[in-house]
Amino acid sequence: DAPAKDLAFNKVLFWVQVHDIPISFQTRKVAEKLCETVGEIQRSNGATDDDRGNFFRVRVMVDVTSPLCRGWVITLPNGNKHWIKFRYECLPSICYWCGCLDHDNRDCDLWIQSNGSLKTD
């Protein structure tokens, strides 16, 4: 019953693709656990491990006031570190310098304050 101007539109549902999970850990449960760092998982009753190809798709409620998580480093049982990559489907404008959705690269305070000295790596 609240007016629209009083509502906070700070969470959005996104499909998050989880890439590069090691073969021995490729299950939906692992993909969902990794996506908990992104936001609140929206589980589907019909989701199975059978729908995978090169990645898993997980529906996540994301707080868009914070920078997006680009991936996660996991430690394998043998002690090696491994980078798991997240890709977001159908994103609006995004700043690749800071990861926020409320502006694009050229309007980023980090970029402006750096006087163009930021490097893409």
If you had to describe this structure to a student in words, what would you say it looks like?
By secondary structure, the protein is mostly beta strands. It is 11% helix and 27% strand. The protein has helices at residues 28-35, 109-113; strands spanning 11-19, 40-41, 55-63, 71-75, 81-88. A 5-stranded antiparallel sheet has the order 2-3-1-5-4, with helices on one face. A hairpin with a 5-residue loop joins β4 and β5. The N and C termini lie far apart (47 Å). The mean pLDDT is 84.
Quick structural overview:
The protein is mainly beta. Helix content is 11%, strand content 27%.
Q: What brief labels describe this structure?
A:
single chain; 121 residues; mainly beta; five-stranded antiparallel sheet; 5 strands; 11% helix; flat
Total DSSP E strands: 5
Estimate what percentage of residues fall within beta strands.
25-35%
Radius of gyration over C-alpha positions, nearest whole angstrom: 17 Å
Oligomer: single chain
Largest sheet: spatial strand order: 2-3-1-5-4
First-to-last CA distance = 47 Å
Kindly report the average pLDDT value. Answer: 84
By helix and strand content, what is the structural category? mainly beta
Distinct helical segment count: 2
Helical coverage, percent range: 10-25%
Major sheet: size, sense and barrel closure? 5 strands, antiparallel
Order of helices and strands, N to C?
A: EHEEEEH
Which regions have little confidence, pLDDT < 50, spanning 5+ residues?
Answer: none
Overall spatial form = flat
